[in-house]
Amino acid sequence: xxxxxxxxxxxxxxxxxxxxxxxxxxxxxxxxxxxxxxxxxxxxxxxxxxxxxxxxxxxxxxxxxxxxxxxxxxxxxxxxxxxxxxxxxxxxxxxxxxxxxxxxxxxxxxxxxxxxxxxxxxxxxxxxxxxxxxxxxxxxxxxxxxxxxxxxxxxxxxxxxxxxx
Length: 165
Hints:
By secondary structure, this protein is α/β, with parallel strands linked by helices. The protein contains 4 helices and 7 strands, in the order βαβαββαβββα. The protein has a 7-stranded mixed β-sheet with strand order 1-7-6-2-5-4-3, with helices on both faces. Strand 6 and strand 7 form a beta hairpin. The protein is globular, with a radius of gyration of 15 Å. 36% of the residues are buried.
């Protein structure tokens, strides 16, 4: 279904720093399951990798080393006990063309994993319409961030159940 036909609602948060961003990511992590796509939108330095790192750690080992996949373009993390679906952390900043994502096994991630995608706009028409968008922007102080969540009805129900809307 095209994005324009999807009913999407948005919830916004003002966060006072990295710890607050990580805490929110940790609250979202248990809501995701296999087949979910989460687009991480925002400019350089807005906290996309901070969010992804906290999300991944919340679904596995809290001490897990979670490097930015800036050069590898994708890192895969196996689920911890009690969770299903590997987490695929994509950083598509250096992707030349949307079709290049097939070389990263993105279709497997979309089918069986949880896809965290930094720079999702690089996927163009390959970006699934059914997804949760996490948009990060700089806030009023250097550490502060503004974060918004936008999702379809399924995501809105999950966010409501978790007390995030």
